[in-house]
Design brief:
alpha/beta, 6-stranded parallel β-sheet, 6 helices, 6 strands, 34% helix
Length: 213
């Protein structure tokens, strides 16, 4: 199975990151995790998880049966394996990715493990996926994203679609996670894939099928 690093920064999107962790670990993949201080606050605000409490074990972000393949690192552990180009990590995921973290990665700053892991992914030519959730975007945001895209990173904003006719918030979360998994080349059944309608017009689900049914 594959090995991934997930950096959870302060951008909005905690439910997406938690669902992504679940999907990767259920496959049996190895996942290394670091969460920024702002990311811990986001977990409390968006998921009701007291991750910013002193002593909270980030391993408890996933179900007990999924923890065997999860390794949690302190944010300041810049000597941890993800900080080295020799570590066997297939891809680095920053989800959610704050604009501050995105800017520092774009300009080569490595002040913590999340930023260093992203920097290593770029220099080693490995897959780096950043999942920002910000709107509107300033010209500074756009320039930083362009710098990263030119360096080989994938900018995958948390922008759900509606053509699969979502019925629940979870359907929108799964749409974004599905796009992340697609970018990693991972098969999944989170959402139904678009197919050409038999009539050549309209939606493949015009006959009454909706997401979640």
């Amino acid at each position: 199975m594959a090995s991934y690093f997930l950096g959870f920064s302060g951008g909005s999107g905690a439910p997406i990151a938690l669902r992504l962790m679940e999907q990767l670990l259920e496959r049996g993949d190895s996942l290394q995790l670091a969460v920024s201080d702002a990311g811990r606050q986001v977990l409390r605000h968006e998921a009701g998880i007291p991750a910013d409490d002193p002593g909270f074990d980030l391993g408890h972000l996933v179900a007990p049966e999924l923890r065997a393949n999860l390794q949690v690192h302190d944010l300041g552990a810049v000597a941890a394996a993800p900080a080295s180009g020799s570590a066997e990590i297939d891809a680095v995921l920053l989800c959610p990715c704050s604009m501050g973290t995105l800017a520092r990665v774009a300009h080569g700053f490595s002040s913590n493990l999340i930023e260093r892991a992203a920097d290593v992914a770029l220099k080693e030519g490995r897959r780096l996926i950043l999942v920002p959730r910000e709107t509107p975007l300033s010209s500074i945001h756009l320039r930083n994203m362009t710098l990263l895209a030119e360096a080989g990173a994938v900018i995958l904003p948390a922008m759900p679609g509606w053509y699969h006719r979502p019925q629940r918030v979870e359907d929108l979360i799964d749409f974004v996670v599905a796009r992340i998994l697609d970018t990693l080349g991972i098969d999944h059944e989170l959402v139904r894939r678009w197919q050409t309608p038999e009539t050549g017009t309209g939606s493949p689900w015009d006959e009454g099928e909706v997401a979640g049914s």
